[in-house]
Fold:
Amino acid sequence: MTEGLWSPLAEVAAVLLASGAFGYGVAGAFLSVAAGRTERAAWGLGVGLALLAASVPLAFAAGRPPREMAVLLFATAAAAAWILHRYRREGRGAGRDTGGVRALLTPSSVLLLLLLIAFGVAVFALRALTEPMWSNDYLAIWGFKGKTLFGAGGVPGRLFTDPALGFSHPEYPLGLPFLFAALSFLLGRWDDHAMALLFPFLQVATLFALFGWLRRRGVARTVALSAAALLANFSPLYSAFLTGMADIPQAFVSLLFGTALVDALDQLDAFAVRRLALASALAVSIKNEGALLAAAGFLLCLVPRGWARAASRRAAAAVAAPTVLFLLAGRLWKGNPPLRDFDFGLLGPTLVLELLPRVAEAIHVAFREVILPSWPGLLCVVVLLAAGRPTPAGDRLVLLALLCALAYLLAPAIAVLGPDWLIRTSFARTVSALAPLAAAGIALRLRSLKAGAKGGDPERTAGG
Amino acid sequence: MSLRRGLAGGASGILLLLLLWGDDPRELARRARTLTRSAGTELAVRRLHGSATARDRQFFAFLESTRRRLPPATAGVAIVGVAASDAAVYLATYQLAPTPVLLAPLRVPPGWLLAVYGSARPEGWRVIAPVWGGALLAPA
Structure:
């Protein structure tokens, strides 16, 4: 019997919606009552998908069917959500930042912005769903591992030890492959076309997280919607090519991480440290860039004078503990597969003279291939940055994105196949995954335009 | 309106236009047509007509046919008759997963089957199943 796309697509949509619904309940443990429905829905999908992905290794470890484990996890999550709902001390931690400006635009502009967001989501859904997931990295890495986990009903050791599978990067985290496998166990088959729906869902969740967080931080609705409209139509990230790869999930999680980090540092609500720990765990479970993000976040906790502040110490611990735990667990499980693309010998004293020209080459190629061709858009971003006013949280988010971008620019200097190759193959893609983080930071800086003109910094009212 | 707000509004508008400029309506229409036309077909047919197989659609048909004819618990499949390019290796490894795959190996590991793409039939092997564009063989 021939089975088309629509029925499996509806099944995947049902699984994703159910995951989000269960996650929505649990997300109450991570958000203050000040969080709106959109932000909670975003965290809810993050929590739901994390539970779904975790059901697979847990099932393998327990020797139970993954479908049964997923049901068990969601039942536990639902019970926990119910208990939380009953016993949670409502109103603990103000959470909502009350600074901000009036709407910059009229209600009809709000409608236009909503239409632009819907357009961006529809266009990405069309691109993501035109055909089964197909990019090289999907076939060689993420899809291959997910299909192997699903087909083998376990984690074959050869994924980490077989030299013939070196191209699949044994050193990469397994979060996304586990998620693919979990969806497949629930569907009862591997459908690499219907599963592409996961990516538009992640796009919508990212937009929800951005809008919800900006609103909670007191940004005017039209400014928050403008940021979401720009991000929804950001095709370098939301593209057919990146559908199936880890960059879109990483972009979502980076936003959750960044917003939780600045909330924790500003002591905006009592739950921010939990959110940060969760987001750190998610970040290192998806891509190696997640560890870099965590390292940059840790650095931001410590400077300037970070260690002297209890809030900074708590935030640093919330970043470091899950990151170290997950990285150690991965190392114990997988052994110590080397970072295949990099030659760390180039950082040693004997090769340092070779390193400097490679750094120059990386910067040169990045400018030639990525930065100069995108100059009109980058100029707009610079103008938006300049038009805003410094705010601690917004500046930290922008700095976090810049630190990561700088690392992506310089890391190719130690690429085994040369800086030119790694910049060409990954720089635009990895930097584009920082867009949600940058959008949140820039929009928050724009929030203070009017309030700042009066001489006040709205964030200070939030206890930052 | 202040200068800063004007700059912010102008830069946002231009950025949005730049992003929307990248959306070619013809590309979107083509995608919509492809999606609606192919949605009723089998998954393998959608894959066959997709981007991943564009380099050699015959090779994908061979792989899919091989996958369907593999005996249960096959230890691995060595594929000969195709150059071991990155694209071919990625597609074959993915399509036959979780079964281990080697392309154009010097030696076939013990217990593995041989999938020949093309009409060649190596000595010491017997055909256990014909597949599209080739054959699946086991040691004689």
Chain A touches chain B through 56 residues (CB under 8 Å). The longest helix of chain A spans residues 37-62. Residues 3-87+100-335+345-461 of chain A form one domain. The radius of gyration of chain A is 22 Å.
